[in-house]
Amino acid sequence: MNQPRPKIKKSRALGIPLTPKAVKYFESRPYPPGEHGRGRKQNSDYKVRLLEKQRLRAQYDLSERQLARAYERARKSETKTGDALIVELERRLDALVLRSGLARTIYQARQMVSHGHIEVNGRKVDKPSFRVRPDDVVRVRERSREKYPFQVAREGGYDTDGETPRYLEVNLKALAFRLDRDPLRKEVPVICDEQLVVEFYAR
Fold this sequence. Notes:
Blueprint: H1 5-14, H2 20-28, H3 45-60, H4 64-75, H5 81-90, H6 93-100, H7 106-114, E1 118-120, E2 123-124, E3 137-140, H8 148-154, E4 168-171, E5 176-179, H9 194-202
């Protein structure tokens, strides 16, 4: 029984490690899975844009519908659509729970939110897609704080690179963080050429 395998296979197909456990597998086999994985493939412009969209979807663990809705909101923004799309996704509650160090992966962050362990400004929020606004305070609910995953988080166990995004003020000991301001695209640790995603939807 090897649970990370599906994520590893997906990581290799998309060309990005989606979980910390996938990193070592991905580094040793940085080519798509399957017998033709090492072979050269000529990709059309459509396939290049499709792959970039799938990469973005996977990093936030979104459905096609969720990403398309986020694009529509970003398209109405007064700023560059690609930048607005990343900011739109980064303000999701599950994404910020991950960035803060309260979770190890986006999948764990989503589970923490959907299981009712997280509150925003003192109110329980169980929708991973909830959009956090600047000055919102997010914390683990009192009744959940002694659960094992949050004990690990409190000790910094999910902090893989030692760098908290500048748009967050994090207090792991208190299992809490605040979104200080909207993120800037260059600050968001997502591997994506968002312009290709915009071109995919604008076609």
